[in-house]
Specification:
The structure is a homodimer. With about 210 residues, chain A is α+β, with helices and mostly antiparallel strands. The first copy, chain A, is built from five helices and 13 strands. At the A-B interface, strand 1, helix 1, helix 2, strand 2 and strand 5 of A face strand 1, helix 1, helix 2, strand 2 and strand 5 of B.
């Protein structure tokens, strides 16, 4: 049996219940740590489940920031320095990655507070997460403010990718299941995934 | 050992290789069928891996559409009728869901072509996918055109949710792992997920 919720039903739910429901109801997400550095040189790390693919050529990714009703260090650092990193979360450090969602003050680096290691390259100033098997360096490109609630879509151009040897298959696919990467449901539930099937390119006559 | 790719390395890759890499490199995604209906009444179904959470109060979700360089029936139907549905893909029908990515002509409903069943409610005209255990009805709210490549973020307000009984836990979390829902990597690889851990709300003193 199926239960039908109207908008009024949803708006009438207790606040935390609705938050949990609305964050999990759109299914599995990637878990990424976004690394930035402030104009004072303090590194910052924050976990996001909202990274989306924008384009392959040239390579662009985006992510959704919550409204700027409180200070958002990730956003301010990206605007101040122009660069950020996206580091996929693996099973070996997902609990440390989750801990970055705690509200640390501006002077504290989540790298130190959560026990993760910054890694730098010469391409840009933003810190990567050494422990991550897939790390992307991005240059800020544009942003879009969502009128409905003040969320922001931040878009960056991928200018560098650091990938563990052997994780990319012959056709360019990242081997997500053998990489130890996790998926996330909502804001707190971490999942291990195993491949069901890789499907061929779909054509009308194949069905 | 870790391999470093510069932007030039990425732009120098063979086109399909780069597409596969850039679509999988941001990790696991949700797999959703977006259901719409044209101004002529022809139902349409298309698979997306780009649904993002925007807001819980009021409930908004978004998804990224590829550029309008070719006709995009999902987009045109949403603009013509004002409503769409998001239907999470489960293991029991993921191969049919994948088949909706084939290029059918405008007269053909993917429901018929791919063997899925439309389901309607009185709340709006867009078709749900009967086979899906989690179905959301959305009213078009706004869109943002990404300057970098012409992709579009479409945002909708969730006005209805149809959820299989027993799938929502006491605190509002959808039980993603016991629901048979799949995650997707890139455009073609489907995954089953199992819960590693639900983490508590993170606070600075807990580490």
């Amino acid at each position: 049996m199926e239960k039908i919720f109207s908008l009024d039903d949803m708006l009438g739910m207790e606040r935390d219940y609705r938050r949990n429901l609305m964050n999990t109801i759109s299914g599995f997400k990637s878990a990424s740590l976004i690394g930035t550095v402030s104009h004072r040189g303090i590194s910052n790390l924050a976990i996001f489940n909202s990274v989306v693919h924008i384009s392959a050529t040239p390579p662009y990714l985006g992510f959704v920031m919550r409204p700027l009703t409180v200070p958002r260090q990730t956003y301010h650092n990206i605007r101040a320095r122009g660069f950020f990193t996206i580091n996929l979360v693996a099973e070996s450090f997902f609990e440390k990655a989750h801990q970055t969602s705690a509200k640390y003050d501006e002077q504290t680096s989540e790298f130190d507070a959560c026990g993760l290691s910054p890694q730098y390259t010469s391409a840009h100033p933003a810190p990567y997460v050494l422990e991550s098997p897939i790390k992307l360096g991005l240059q800020y490109e544009e942003e879009h403010h969502i009128t409905a609630n003040g969320s922001i879509l931040v878009v960056g151009r991928v200018i560098e990718a650091l990938v563990e040897e052997g994780m990319i298959g012959a056709e360019g696919h990242v081997d997500l299941d053998n990489s130890g990467l996790v998926a996330v449901g909502g804001l707190d539930s971490y999942y291990r995934a195993s491949l069901l099937k890789r499907m061929p390119y779909a054509r009308p006559e194949k069905e």
